[in-house]
């Protein structure tokens, strides 16, 4: 299965992607996760990407497209993949189509996870993640707080707030989404592969809806 997950920051793409990995046994390719790892490792790529990410803007297409091409060429993507956070604009979508066409693996579904902006704001400002790379459990101080403030229920490691989940950056990220990423809804509608799911409510119920769509 070759899927693109669309949706504003905080729509729950990452959460649903992780569940899809377990069900379908295909990898999630999250450009945001790859970039955050590069920033944490202080690689050249990370240094280049950091200022764009901290400001809530998009990292240049040339950088992100290179990353995705490299990742898609790896053996575990042969059976399929879940792209999460890519493409983010029309140029990226067109490049992706070209890359996939050249290897004979066209996209099958672009799934948009739809959530109102006021809910997104709470989700993003409240989001906390476990610092342990092996755990990575996510919480939300408004909707699903850890039992002890700032500490992971699962492994006891400290929780952190992503730099780009700070209030001033969030507004910019949502503006960028509206201006650059939302047009992809039309792009994939025209290609006849757009599906939509309401991303509000119980995580498992949303996942079940996604599974019926993907059937
Ligand atoms: P995310 O975790 O998907 O919300 O991504 C976090 C940040 O990484 C974004 O705000 C961008 O700065 C950068 N980023 C992630 N994916 C892309 C992409 N496809 N194109 C450009 N920048 C990206």
UniProtKB/TrEMBL annotation:
Monomer. NCBIfam families: adk, PRK00279.1-2, PRK00279.1-3, PRK14527.1. Residues 127-164 form the Adenylate kinase active site lid domain. Pathway: Purine metabolism; AMP biosynthesis via salvage pathway; AMP from ADP: step 1/1. It catalyses: AMP + ATP = 2 ADP. Consists of three domains, a large central CORE domain and two small peripheral domains, NMPbind and LID, which undergo movements during catalysis. The LID domain closes over the site of phosphoryl transfer upon ATP binding. Assembling and dissambling the active center during each catalytic cycle provides an effective means to prevent ATP hydrolysis. Some bacteria have evolved a zinc-coordinating structure that stabilizes the LID domain. AMP binds at residues 31, 36, 57-59, 85-88, 92, 162, 173. CDD domains: ADK (cd01428). Catalyzes the reversible transfer of the terminal phosphate group between ATP and AMP. Plays an important role in cellular energy homeostasis and in adenine nucleotide metabolism. Its EC number is 2.7.4.3. Residues 30-59 are annotated as: NMP. Belongs to the adenylate kinase family. It comes from the Bacteria. GO terms for molecular function: AMP kinase activity. Its main location: cytoplasm. InterPro entries: Adenyl_kin_sub, Adenylat/UMP-CMP_kin, Adenylat_kinase_CS, Adenylate_kinase_lid-dom, P-loop_NTPase. PROSITE patterns: ADENYLATE_KINASE. It is found in: Cytoplasm. This is Adenylate kinase. The gene is adk. Keywords: ATP-binding, Cytoplasm, Kinase, Metal-binding, Nucleotide biosynthesis, Nucleotide-binding, Transferase, Zinc. ATP binds at residues 10-15, 127, 201. The lineage of its organism: Bacteria, Pseudomonadati, Nitrospirota, Nitrospiria, Nitrospirales. Zn(2+) binds at residues 130, 135, 152, 155. The keyword Lipid biosynthesis does not apply.
